[in-house]
Amino acid sequence: MNRSEPTNPPPQVKVAIKQLNKRKIKDIDSGIEFLLNEIKVHWALEHCVSVVRLLSIFEDEDYIYMVLEYQPNGTLLKTLKSNQKFNEPDVRVIIEQMLLALDYLERKKVVHRDIKPDNILINSIEDNSEYEIRIADFGFAVFTPNDELLTHKCGTPGYVAPEMFLNEAGYSYKADVFSLGAVFFNLLTGRYLFSGDNMEQTLRRNVRCDIKGIQKYLEHTSNNCKDLIQ
Description:
By secondary structure, the protein is α+β, with helices and mostly antiparallel strands. Helices cover 36% and strands 16% of the residues. The protein starts with 14 loop residues before the first strand and ends with a helix.
């Protein structure tokens, strides 16, 4: 019997696994709808270089597993918590990528609704300064095929757009831009744009959106940067 030629095994590739409990999904209002939206949004954005790619999905009796691109350098939040400083050129590169990504989302009729440092992953860092980032976690994301306004309140206190709570008519793509502005301030200053002793207080300050006192934290930045963030 002739033996077949040995073949080289495929290279090992690191991936990230998002494990979702089926029972918990069913127990949450609109949980199944959110999950289906998350999957559909990933598929719609698969050609956007600044979005984490969904590679595959599988399930067993109790869980659904989403296999995602692995991002080796963690989140922007992790970097902020390590007290590592972002200088203005670093921030400019990150925000430029984010704005281009949000523009792509809008063209695909998608609102993310939870832009924050936890959901922005670092794919690579060139020359210890140029960050390549990926947007992750589309659990709150939703399609607006006819540019309809949204009314469901979601997101993270400190980053939600005030119109989500104040505008009875609803909100749309600009909600993500507001959230990115809060991230922008985080990266420049190492501080939260809105904070409080608890989530409720943070949310109240966030919705009130009083940013009159932020100038003192931006003294080290350029005039163009100050103009953009204010």
